[in-house]
Amino acid sequence: MYDLIIIGAGVIGSAIAREISRYRLNVAVLEKSEEPAFGVSKSNSGIIHPGTQNRPGTLKGKLCVQGNRLTRMIAKELGIDFKKVGELIVALDNDELVSLSDIKREAEALGVPGLKLVGRAWLKKNEPNLTEEAVGALYAPTAGIISPYRWVYDLLENAKANGVEVHTSTRVIGIRRVEDPLSADRGPRFEKRIAHSAESKAWVERLYALCALRYADDRTRTDPGDGGPGTGNYFELATSRGMFRSRFMVNAAGLYADEVARMAGIEDFVIYPRKGEEFILDKKKHNLTRHLIFPIPTKTSKGILVIRTSDGNPMIGPTAQDVDSKEDLSTSEEGFRRVLESVKKYVPSIDENDIIAYFAGLRPASGDDFIIRHEDAFPGMVTVAGMQSPGLTAAPAVALFVRDILKKNGLDLRRKPFFRRWRREPYHLFSSSAEAARKMIKEDPAYGDIVCRCEMVSSKEIREAVRRGARTLDGIKFRTRAQAGRCHGGFCTARILKILAEETGENITSITKRGRGSEIVVRDMNDGGC
Amino acid sequence: MAAAISAHESGVKDILLLERDLYLGGLLNQCIHTGFGLTYFKETLTGPEYASRFVERVRAIPSIEVVTRAFAVRLTGEKTVDYLIPGHMVSVRAKAVVMATGSRERTREMAHIAGTRPAGIFPAGLAQRLINIEGYLPGKNVVIVGSGDIGLIMARRFKLEGAEVKAVIEIQPVTRGLVRNVVQCLDDFGIPLYFRHKIAHIYGKDRVEGVDVVRVDEEMREIEGSRFSMGCDTLLVSVGLIPENELIEMAGAELDKKSNTPVSGRMNETSLPGIFVCGNSYKVYDIVDTVSACAENAGRMAAGYLGKVEQQV
After folding, report:
1. CATH number at residue A165
2. Chain-centre distance of CA A467, in angstroms?
3. One domain, residues A132 and A261
4. Partner of A445 for a Cys bridge, out of A252, A428, A511, B86, CB 3.0 to 4.6 A?
5. What pLDDT, on a 0 to 100 scale, did the predictor assign at position A432?
6. A180 vs B239, higher pLDDT
7. In Å, how far is B188's CA from the nearest CA of chain A?
8. Is A423 on the interface with B (CB under 8 A)?
9. Active-site residue identified among A49, A167, A291, A428
10. pLDDT tens across A438-469, in order?
């Protein structure tokens, strides 16, 4: 029996896991994908927003400002490459200048520090590539950038170091609440719900019986206790990897939060996927801008931006387009044109030939604000949904918020005597000085064995990534940047496949890009068979 | 290797040849088809055979020191090269440098092909490496975009391994590859080649499931009503090569932004005195024999430069 199960290993689930790992609790994170951060979190701009462009009185407004501060603090604790670069919301005419004052006033009411209206002279000096047309800007110094996936990996690894279990490739397929007949704390009624509620009751029973069986066989899991009379109410989560039992549960399932909620009978919100296409420029252009460049926001979006990333490559985007499918991650020619046209108004020197990669992500949109609440009709369950921008920034503040909700609803929070707060900064050859690199290579020759030539990633870093949990080509890419450079894996993919196979003991034919179904090669021709 | 040999023959006494891979020969090692050496050796060789002729000559010259697994990370205008070998970062100062760093493939991203990003999209050269060196078949049902030589050669290669090759899609009205490759790799195997067509969209969540193909007009725009679908599990991208000149760029050499090649007055030169570029990093060539000739010229140029420098001293 777990004390808490978190569904979803994106940035929200990971931030909550890390926060809760301070307490003497048995916690597990369940993730349907092969690796954490493979959903909404992987395709993110990586901006830690200062807290502007949110309305006062909203959860977004409150948690973004707080999250910015907490992110910086945790990034320091975990040795993560957070860079405080600042942002400029740029006005191109006098009407826009007027709206800047409004944005400033609203943001100050929310407590965003250090805001300053700057004029042409300041911009010319501090942002030389910005268009001459710019008449002024709102400067927010606390805006920063972070690698969104490395942030998730680091939060989660720290949570693991503090005792949290992470179960990947574990898809929740049914949730039911079991009431303890001896418990005084009885809910409003006995809940027994499951996904696909149209299915027959027999099917549901079979599913649970099957899960229980898998659970009985699974020795890899440490799951103390098995419920029973006198131990209180609990949830049973039927998953693709067997049954999990827990007293409390957080739904941080991102795009699928509504589907998880429905398994518990909660049907009052729907997640609408809203697509954003982003385009990555060659690292050679790292000096394109010094700040994050924002247009004046519209009612629904912060607009199309010029972004600096913690990897050094500038990025432009995102678009914002409501789509039907939660799996529609395709990019389009129109999106490309729209983004290019839009950013050229602000930074005219951007050239389409500098674009080396692109991707699309889906925002899990649901109404105007975050949905973070305890489900009184399903006691013990906390919903964290609709976590679109500024969700990444807000994540650590959301974690505190959720912690307090759990506490209020009976989760016993007693601190562990020892919490591993600090972590040694992981080493990246690509971001080191020549001297530091020389020393590392001397200490460990594998650092001198370059696998990815465009981003300078050594075999040491790739093996290290596998040891830290990478199982797929994308997992390696997100952790190390190998395959993310200008040749896009043309030179290094074969070598990475071999290292992955060696480290995991799998055959190359079962190595995937991002989980089952995305195998890279279809046949091994080395054994003579065909 | 050709540059090193010709520099030696032109009187250079002390030559260091750095190779990042385990063996010399570069991409030739994965080009197991024949057709190499027709002009240079007057016979037809495979890629590895062609390379091995040079390897033998290089190994026989004591004044050429060969270091494999050496990864050059930095070059300065003063001709200092920093390179990594397992366990060490080495710095050497040369009087002249010849770059023979080859080229990389243009990617699907650079060709702006819209759609999803599943497994099964390969630069043609990577697919060639997987089949010919590593021994893995990347897919069973292949569409190839771009009729460059690597794409054509790989069409035949997949066919020989028992895979289905649906089509080669070329946006231009003519092939980018050699005519002999169109005949021997496509026509002989009945693989259709679509000119003036492009891939408009890639489908598939985890693995490629298919592509949309459209006909284009003179300005490369989609012709209304010409769209059709093709099912496939693999898309090979063979849409051209880009010279790899990031090191000389780092050293401060002027590069042509469009072609990524050095801007210089004479063949093989860069804007930096004493730094020369040859082979596909100087200009993308079709035939390896010409690459060897180009490299030999660079070796002689370097020797000539050294002669002048020494006279001045």
Report:
1. 3.50.50.60
2. 20
3. no
4. B86
5. 76
6. B239
7. 23
8. no
9. A49
10. 888 888 888 888 999 888 899 999 999 999 99
Tell if the CB–CB gap between B104 and A486 is shorter than 8 Å.
yes
- Based on the domain organization, do A249 and A379 belong to the same domain? yes
Domain span at residue A220?
2-39+150-270+369-408
Rounded to a whole number of angstroms, the distance from the CA of B196 to the nearest CA of chain A is 18
**Which sign, positive or negative, has the C-alpha torsion A41, A45, A48, A49?**
negative
Among A330, A498, A525, select the one facing B114 at the smallest CB separation. Answer: A330
Q: Tell whether pTM > 0.80.
A: yes
Cis status of the peptide bond prior to A390, with omega within 30 of 0: yes
The mean pLDDT values, 10 residues at a time, for chain A of 530 residues are 96 98 96 96 94 92 97 93 95 94 95 96 96 96 96 96 95 87 47 41 64 52 50 86 92 97 94 96 92 90 93 94 93 94 96 90 95 95 96 98 97 93 74 80 87 90 93 95 91 96 95 96 79
The answer to whether A478 and B95 are in contact (CB under 8 A) is no
How confident is residue B181, by pLDDT bands cut at 50, 70 and 90?
Answer: very high
* Alpha-carbon distance values, A288 to A283, A291, A432 (Å): 10, 9, 21
How do strand B241-243 and strand A27-30 relate by DSSP bridges? unpaired
Please tell me whether residues A154 and A257 are part of one structural domain: yes
Let me know whether A388 and A481 are in one domain.
Answer: no
How remote is the C-alpha of A431 from its chain's centroid?
A: 22
Q: Which of residues 327-356 of A touch B (CB under 8 A)?
A: 327, 329-333, 336, 353, 355-356
Instruction: Output DSSP code: residue A512.
Output: B
B197 beta partners? B215
Which positions ≥6 away from B138 have C-beta within 8 Å? A520, A521, A522, B120, B122, B127, B130, B131, B234
CATH code of the domain containing A447: 1.10.10.1100
Establish whether A291 is a catalytic residue. Answer: no
Structural domains present in chain B: 2-104+241-312 (3.50.50.60), 107-237 (3.50.50.60)
Q: B64-121: per-residue pLDDT in tens?
A: 999 999 999 999 999 999 999 888 889 999 999 999 999 999 999 888 899 999 999 9
Q: What's the rounded Cα separation, in Å, for the pair A140 and A64?
A: 14
Alpha helices in A349-429 (DSSP H): 391-408
**Alpha-carbon distance B151 to B165, whole Å?**
11
In a domain, A454, yes or no: yes
A522 CB neighbours in chain B (<8 A) are 137-140, 233
A353 and A501 assigned to the same domain? no
A227 and A177: one domain? Answer: yes
CA distances from A340 to A91, A273, A305 (A): 18, 23, 10
Amino acid residing at B240: G
Q: A290 and A348, same structural domain?
A: yes
Q: What ranges in chain B are assigned the alpha helix state H?
A: 2-9, 47-59, 124-129, 149-160, 179-181, 246-251, 288-312
Residues A167 and A258 in one domain: yes
CB contact under 8 Å between A453 and B112, yes or no, is no
Distance CA A282, CA A314 (A): 7
Domain limit, last residue, from A365, A389, A416: A365
Q: Helices in B164-262 by DSSP H: which ranges?
A: 179-181, 246-251
Closest CA of chain A from B9, distance in Å: 32
Please say which residue of A341, A365, A389 terminates a domain.
A365
Number of domains present in the structure of chain A: 3
Whether A530 sits inside 8 A of B162 (CB atoms) is: yes
Instruction: Indicate whether A413 belongs to any domain.
Output: no
How far, in Å, CA of B16 to CA of B61, rounded? 12
Q: Is the ipTM of this complex over 0.90?
A: yes
Q: Would A132 be classed as within a structural domain?
A: yes
